TrEMBL record:
SUPFAM superfamilies attached to this UniProt entry: NAD(P)-binding Rossmann-fold domains (SSF51735)
Protein name: Oxidoreductase
Similarity remark: Belongs to the short-chain dehydrogenases/reductases (SDR) family.
Pfam families documented for this protein: adh_short
Entry keyword set: Oxidoreductase
Protein's organism: Streptomyces flavalbus
InterPro entries on file: NAD(P)-bd_dom_sf, SDR_fam
Length: 312
């Protein structure tokens, strides 16, 4: 029997934070968690779109318990404000979903290359700042959304901001997605060493139709590329609902193992059954690379994971 959103265990009494919950995968994940009884914090950059998502979920799910709180992952000040305002004593589920893809070169508010800054550093800081609530909650889980595109490039610890040589938007994106997986690997190692009741896992949607594919070409004024992306979304991609299933499985299934990487069951591309383990590049399981990325991330964000010390 195929796994679908109806098989999500009861989430009553649980608190979840979903970044980028106003559209695409994040919206579906937030809606389905709310449908199962979770209190869901919609962590979104745009207040207009975040409030609209809050109203939409309330209209689609009777009795939904959701709240919008502004979060801009491209601004570490905003990340700190979000964490400082977090009002719940527990945090059962943190879904690091928001991201940008294949953008022209740019920098975050804090001066980091945009894709690395938003996709990795913003979520690294957020997870670290919410760590006390996660550690205080039995069986808490952190799900970080990566991509099969991570296999295009490993991170370069000497050039985390993609400043050396010619900037290549897809390479920068792949590096940020490799960083997501390497972060999950190192976080899982440190949680295990600390005997913490928190599980760190990763997931990816395969090829799902969201606005992620068109934002980059539109930002660069590449109309043909935008048209190709729109065509791919219509003809080839699965729906956002299908792409969200591996994330929901990683977030809620009882048999998910630490540091696992869950994706669609058909060639890690589309889902036609229960989400399944996905292949990952060997560099995303490298302990030393994980340590180096962790140390650099703490230095760049000025967020230290106090209880989670270096392994070994």
């Amino acid at each position: 029997m195929a796994w679908n959103a109806a098989r999500i265990p009861d989430q009553g009494g649980r608190v979840a934070v979903v970044t980028g919950a106003n559209s695409g995968l994040g919206y579906v994940v937030a809606r389905e968690l709310a449908r199962k009884g979770a209190h869901v914090v919609l962590a979104c950059r745009s207040e207009v779109r975040g409030r609209a998502a809050e109203r939409r979920i309330a209209s689609e799910v009777g009795g939904a318990d959701v709240e919008f709180v502004r979060l801009d992952l491209g601004d570490l000040g905003s990340v700190r404000e979000f964490a400082a305002a977090y009002r719940h004593e527990r945090l059962d589920l943190l879904v690091n979903n928001a991201g940008v893809m294949a953008l022209p070169y740019g920098t975050t508010v804090d001066g980091f290359e945009t894709q690395f800054g938003v996709n990795h550093l913003g979520h690294f800081a957020l997870t670290g700042l919410l760590l006390p609530a996660l550690l205080a909650t039995p069986d808490a889980r952190v799900v970080t959304v990566s991509s099969m595109m991570h296999a295009l490039a490993t991170i370069d610890p000497r050039d985390l901001n993609s400043e050396r040589g010619r900037y290549r938007r897809w390479v920068a994106y792949a590096r940020s997605k490799s960083a997501n997986l390497l972060f999950t690997h190192e976080l899982a190692r440190r949680l295990e060493a600390a005997f913490a009741e928190v599980t760190a896992v990763a997931a990816h949607p395969g090829y799902a139709a969201t606005n992620l594919q068109t934002t980059g070409p539109r930002a660069a004024g590449r109309r043909v590329s935008e048209w190709v992306a729109e065509l791919g979304n219509r003809v080839v991609a699965q729906s956002a609902e299908g792409g969200a299933l591996p994330v929901l499985y990683a977030a809620t299934a009882p048999d998910v193992r630490p540091d696992s990487f869950t994706g669609p069951s058909f060639a890690a591309w589309r889902g036609n059954g229960t989400p399944a383990p996905s292949p990952r590049a060997p560099w995303t399981l490298d302990d030393r690379a994980g340590e180096l990325l962790w140390e650099a991330s703490e230095r760049m964000t000025q967020v230290a994971y106090g209880p989670l010390k270096r392994v070994g």
